[in-house]
Design a protein that fits this description.
23 strands; single chain; 36% strand; elongated; alpha+beta; 5-stranded antiparallel β-sheet
Length: 351
């Protein structure tokens, strides 16, 4: 009987102990909220994607001028007008040019008749060879003067060299035009439209014609427009040092010269080496930096998490941090909020 009482007492103590342990068990930790971050993607050519503000321009903008000085009689188009190839755009007062052309043509006709008569006389031996040669030279000079007069007469008018749109008009009827001074500027429709970008010398050295780009023009809506780098100017602007890059654009309704937009383009090739081995990233994307090494957080889009990765630093410049190893083209790294992250942290991407 005493043994049964002791056994029951032990079982009661054990039950109370287990109940106490269960009551004292800690509550599960609250689930951490994803950390909001912004990303920068290593471009397809190995460089960080750079955003540059540019201006839409015609690829070919041609200034048109009179070949001779004179008084402007008429300007037949205005800024914004669409013109066709060969269309008459402006004309000088052609009275003097027309008179000169008539006089020169008459001189050439008279010289030709004199030459014909002297050749007949020379065949009969009635004039010297020297006299005939002088008449031949006179006729040739008269023909040259007539051709010059016709040139002046023809270029007292400005015609459109091709289809396009009038971008600028600098003279009005009654003004005195100097020879070669632009009267109109024509945007050639055959060359299409481009976006002109100011580039640093480092960007100009990194980019190559054919590099794809993405353009956004607020005037045409939020949809991105795909383009391609067409060319880079051969020298920098003497005042600013900037090089001009041109992004070729497709023909789009409403696209006009002068529109402002932003272009996203991958820049990364430095010093003539392949861009794939030398990505450039923002300085804000690295942490725990030491001699020639640092860490970045690489975004895993499937897991929605970031992983710390060691990268090797090649150089530090105005364009950002140049890496020699650690990242591949197409990878996305965190550019903001690094102080709130740890390896494996869940993140929420801010677009």
């Amino acid at each position: 009987m005493a043994g049964s009482t002791a056994q029951a007492h032990i079982m009661l103590v054990m039950a109370l102990a287990l109940a106490g342990c269960k009551a004292a068990a800690p509550a599960p930790a609250p689930r951490a909220e994803p950390v909001p971050v912004r990303l920068v993607r290593v471009g397809a050519d190995g460089g960080a994607v750079t955003t540059i503000t540019g201006t839409v321009r015609h690829a070919e903008e041609t200034p048109l001028a009179f070949a001779q000085p004179g008084r402007v009689r008429a300007v037949l188009v205005d800024v914004g007008d669409t013109v066709r190839a060969g269309q008459l755009l402006a004309t000088l007062d052609t009275g003097p040019a027309d008179a000169n052309a008539v006089a020169a043509a008459e001189d050439a006709r008279r010289a030709a008749l004199d030459l014909t008569r002297l050749r007949t006389l020379a065949d009969k031996g009635w004039v010297t060879r020297a006299r005939l040669e002088s008449a031949e030279a006179g006729a040739a000079a008269a023909n040259a003067r007539a051709a010059a007069a016709r040139f002046d007469q023809r270029y007292a008018r400005v015609h459109a060299p091709g289809p396009g749109v009038v971008l600028a008009r600098t003279l009005d009827p009654g003004a005195i035009a100097a020879a070669g001074a632009p009267v109109l500027t024509l945007g050639d429709a055959r060359g299409g439209l481009v976006v002109q970008l100011p580039l640093t010398d480092r960007q100009a050295a990194a980019l190559r014609p054919g590099t794809p780009a993405e353009l956004r023009l607020p005037a045409l809506g939020p949809a991105p427009i795909s383009g391609q780098l067409r060319r880079i100017s051969g020298r920098g602007d003497p005042a600013t040092g900037a090089f001009i890059g041109e992004i070729a654009l497709p023909a789009l309704p409403g696209l006009r010269s002068g529109m402002i937009g932003t272009v996203r383009i991958a820049t990364g090739s430095i010093g003539g080496e392949t861009a794939a081995s030398r990505p450039v990233i923002p300085a804000t994307a690295i942490f725990a930096a030491r001699t020639e090494e640092a860490f970045v957080y690489v975004h895993d889009p499937r897991a929605g998490r970031v992983r710390a990765r060691l990268v090797r630093i090649e150089a530090i410049g105005e364009a950002g941090i140049t890496l020699s190893a650690g990242l591949k083209a197409g990878e996305a790294i965190v550019a903001t909020g690094l102080d709130r992250l740890r390896d494996g942290a869940q993140v929420r991407v801010i677009r």
